[in-house]
Structure formats: C-alpha cells, structure tokens
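Marked as duplicate of an earlier ticket. Keeping the data here for the record.
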Amino acid sequence: MPEITDDSGNILPAAGGEIPADNEENLFGKYEVGRLLGYGAFAKVYHARDVRTGQSVAIKAVSKQKVLKGGLTAHVKREISIMRRLRHHHIVRLFEVMATKTKIFFVLEFAKGGELFAKVAKGRFSEDLSRRYFQQLISAVGYCHSRGVFHRDLKPENLLLDENWDLKVTDFGLSAVTDQVRPDGLLHTLCGTPAYVAPEVLAKKGYDGAKIDVWSCGIILYVLNAGYLPFNDPNLMVMYRKIYKGEFRCPKWTSPDLRRFLSRLLDTNPSTRITVDQIVNDPWFKKGYKHIETFSDDFLDLKPEEDVNSGKKFLNAFDIISFSSGFDLSGMFDLPGCSTGGERFVSAESPEKIIGEIEEAVKAEDGIAAVVRKKDLGVKLEGQNGDFVATVEIHRLTEKLVVVEIKRRENDDGPSRGMWKEKLRPHLTALVYKPERRVTGS
C-alpha cells in the first residue's frame, strides 16, 4: 500500500493496533486498513483499500462505548440516515456502514487532497480560486437544502479536496433534517463552531437551517479571500458580540463586487440575508459558473427499508448496527425469577429453511407446547408449562444474507430449563454464515 503523507510531505504514522482489536488490519475481509489520517473525540479516520477493486477509501471508526456513554446514539443514527440520502459530486459519499462488537465503521469516499483548511492556512486564495471553491460549496449546500438537509457546521475543516482538487463537503454529524423543525418552522438546537455560527443561533430564539448554512458559507468565502476570519477575538463573548453586530472589514484587495456579495451573505438579519437561489444569480458568483449535474435520485427517496428493484424489505444501516453486540436495546422479557436473553446471527440460508430447521428441532425435543408462525418472517415457541417463551425473527440484510434474532425467557428452575442453549440452539449452528477470511502475509 502506498505511503500516506500529510500536506507537508511527511509520512503519517502507521495505524498499528488502532483498529485491529476487532478485525485486524483486514476489516471483514473487504478492506485492508492502512494509515491513520486523523482523529477526534469519538472517531478515528484511516486510509484503506478495497481488496476487490483496489479503490482507496476512508474508514471512520467510531467507538460504540463512547457513543453510548456520550448519549450520541441518535447523533450517529442521524448522520447515517442523512449521508445515505446524499449523492453529489461535491459531497463525500458514504459507501457502507459496518459494525463489530466495539466499533462502528463508516466506509467513505477517500479525498486524497486533504482538508481545504490546510491549503488556506498556507495563504489566502486568489479571488478567482475563492470563487471556484465557493461555487462548488454552494452547489453541494443547495443540493442538501433541496433534500431537507441542513449541515449546520460548515467550515474549511469540513471541506475536503479530491485528487482533482475539487471540493467535497463532509462531516454531517451536526446536520438537521426537516422533521426536526418545530411547529414555529424553526430549528432550536445550539450547534456549530463559534467563529462560523450565525447571530440568530446565538440569540437562541430559533433559526432557519438554510439561512445559517448561508452565513457559514459567507464566513468560508471571507476566509478563502482574506486568509483570516472576519469575526475573531481571544475572548469568546467579545467575538460573539462582533458576530451579533456584524462588525467586520474586508481586506483592501477585495473587489467591490465581492465586498457587496459578502455583505449580503453576512447580513445579521436572516430575513434579508441572501438565499441560495439568489446566490446562484448574483453577478459575482455567476462568473465562470457551470451547473453541476447531480446523480440519479432513483434510490434516494425510498424509505430506508425498501429495495428499488424487488420491493423486498431490507435493514437500513442503523438497523444493522443495532444488531451488533453492544447496541441490544430489546429487553423484551424482563420478568422476575426468569433468565432472559437475546442472540443474533447472520445466515445465508433462506428464511423458510431457517424456520423449517427450528420446527424440526422442536419436534426432536420434548417440552414445547406450541409453535406459531408469525405474519412477518418469524416463529414463536412456547413451553408446555409456560416457563419458556422464545421468538425468532428473520430480517433481510442483503439479497443473499439474513439476520436471525432470537429473544427468549425461561424459568431457571422449571422443566424447560436450558431449552434454548442446550437443546434448540445446537440445531442452528450449521445455519450460521461463515464468511471466507482472507489470509494476509506476515
């Protein structure tokens, strides 16, 4: 695998033992995990190679323990839900989501050029180059807004560059969607990075997600052209006052058209602030602008569990994560004096065969009074004395794989003691999917 370097040409340290605790450097036999690219409080990002195609990808590894302790389950679920509906040339694409016992893995498009922030930190851009990147940014932001998604944390650190030096928007962890809008038509969650946050967010009276994204885009454009922030102060409250009052000055090299344009982007009154539709018709913005065709949306407007071709129901990304150990939220049979449990396994067998095997296993054992097939793919088992109850549900994972979920309650002292683990479970071991493991050299 080629060496990964930072923007100064320094070779980044190897990932070493960072990911391996779950699956070694060969993640699920699908990705060869390489070097650490960056990290934050809850996640680390690695370069990896798809072993089937040789394509470079970025893998964002999120600690389940930190997600649960930080109360961020909904946060991760939202990020997955949002990224799966966005497919645009200037938005980092989410290819798939996987999970092990301790981690969640986002497999993302690899942006070889690194952060835009690293480039502008070396010196301001020309007005033409600033315009080029701003046009790409607005193309992505307008696309998001048209699909009811508001980023809410736009900044140069969340803008990456690909091998062609085209911009890619990433990090939708703080994004909001239209179903989070309150009855007053506004969002109310305080979020964002201080220097890029809009004044109406600071006012805590509710805000329009599209308007605050436009404000952040204005800050980004200012930074690209000037090389520094329009509102900045070591004292956070002083900086907030400057933002609230809209106190900023353009550097002397800023053209009159750009000064005028920035004043419309950084208008402290959200009701008069320029909109995305107005931005694309602005004379300064339109210079050299080429409309960017978006990808087909045929599959994007489906409900998460629907497959476009067959109409079959499939698990969405967060359902898959939920089936991994550590995210078991069931606890269906929490009754005094009884042991409860839940297990899940992946199988390549058909749901009918799995249910058939369960029914055959029941016939071979005494102690089961009733076997009831459920309307959906599943079966319910009941012990003769009511001291054993189990439900087996089968969820379609892909065209070839299913997840089998077992939830049970049994009386530890009753005649059905050990019914599941000792009598029924062994009949199902042959149904468990065993993926081929790729052997790597030492």
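See parent ticket for discussion. The CA atoms of residues 6 and 235 lie 31 Å apart.
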